[in-house]
From TrEMBL:
Bilayer-crossing regions: 29-62, 69-91, 111-136
Key words of the record: Membrane, Transmembrane, Transmembrane helix
Biological classification of the source: Bacteria, Pseudomonadati, Pseudomonadota, Alphaproteobacteria, Rhodospirillales
UniProt protein name: Uncharacterized protein
Biased composition (Low complexity): 169-179
Domain of life according to the entry: Bacteria
Region (Disordered): 1-20, 169-188
Amino acid sequence: MSNKGQSATKGAASRKGGQQERRRSGWKLLLILVVLGLGLAVLPTMLVVAVGMLPTLVAYIVDGRREKYAAFSVGCMNFCGVLPFMLQLWLRDHTFAHAWKIVGDPIVWMIMYGAAACGWLIYYAAPHVVAVYLRFQLERRIQKLRGYQKELVDEWGDSITRGVTPVVDTGGDGTVAPTPEEEKAAGG
């Protein structure tokens, strides 16, 4: 492709990217305006939410990933901790006095921030749990394949394995001992 064609393609891509960025920033601005508008309508609720959801804000700032997984897991659990007190405010007395009473209770803080701590625990523990599960699943699959292999050898005899050296696990850590041919090729 000529330089003229490449620059035209790059220009079109940059214009498209710029339009998407402006569209995204427009949605962000609209979302902020809606939240502020609702916040003015329900100021006592916003007081409880602002104090209760601080761990989510911290998680959002601290999380360096573009996907913001920490903010998502902490935010969901944090919201679960704040919701009962929002409902209490809505169902009993939706005033600033009651909101300040809720915010001033240390037990309420413990519940809201404890729920956020559970979100952090999920964020840090989930990869390890998934890794253990996948390793278990993989080991099960390996055992199944070894069973099939044994059945084939039983059915067809040892002659199908001629020329193939058995793979030896050297300590259960997944590493395999080199074959004599590999040792000879390596100069050992």
